[in-house]
Design a protein that fits this description.
The chain is α+β, with helices and mostly antiparallel strands. It is built from 5 helices and 8 strands, in the order αβββααβαβββαβ. The longest helix has 22 residues, at 110-131. The model has no long low-confidence stretch (mean pLDDT 88).
Length: 178
């Protein structure tokens, strides 16, 4: 023990050699990518989230709260949630295009998922259009199927049910007033 302690003390207390007086070398600038920090606020139950990037706000509602499995008819709970989103768009929205984007998880065929996500986006579009009080928003619906997952459906080769649930969603994307 004393031998290792004396070796450690010798290393710590020994003087650090100075660089040679004529040492020169190229000076390079460090260029690193700057990425936007996107904050996401998620509801306690995980069924709704909101992100803001600059003037663009995205409100995501999980399909589990909006629709029954494999359906595109809105539930009663969905209508309550969409009323809240419509109030937010009315109060904070800058007008113009409001994108209604449907998404699915990776279960089912690509064609089925695109069709299902399109029908769900259109159902939300119709409902929100009827709830908005301002007339200056142009709602555009599009289904993306499983092509834009929010989180990976499969982690370490295993499906993750919680991730799949987050990927089954409808997002409303709009710009806010300055």
């Amino acid at each position: 023990m004393f031998r290792s302690l004396s070796v450690a003390l010798a290393l710590v207390l020994s003087p650090t050699p100075a660089p040679p007086a004529n040492a020169t070398g190229p000076v390079e600038d460090l260029v690193l990518p700057v990425e936007d920090i996107i904050g996401e606020v998620e509801s306690l139950d995980g069924t709704e989230s909101e992100t803001k990037l600059g003037k663009q706000v995205t409100v995501a509602l999980t399909s589990d709260v909006l629709f029954a499995v494999d359906k595109w008819v809105l539930t009663a709970e969905a209508r309550k949630r969409l009323q809240e989103v419509a109030r937010k768009i009315d109060a904070e929205g800058a007008g113009g295009v409001v994108k209604v984007e449907g998404h699915t998880d990776d279960q089912g065929t690509d064609a089925y998922n695109v069709t299902l996500s399109q029908r769900r986006a259109q159902a939300v579009q119709r409902a929100v259009r009827g709830l908005l009080t301002g007339g200056d928003a142009d709602l555009q619906a599009k289904g993306y199927g499983e092509s834009r997952p929010k989180v990976p459906n499969i982690v370490d080769g295993k499906p993750v049910a919680a991730n799949r649930a987050k990927n089954r969603r409808v997002e409303l994307v709009f710009n806010v007033k300055q």
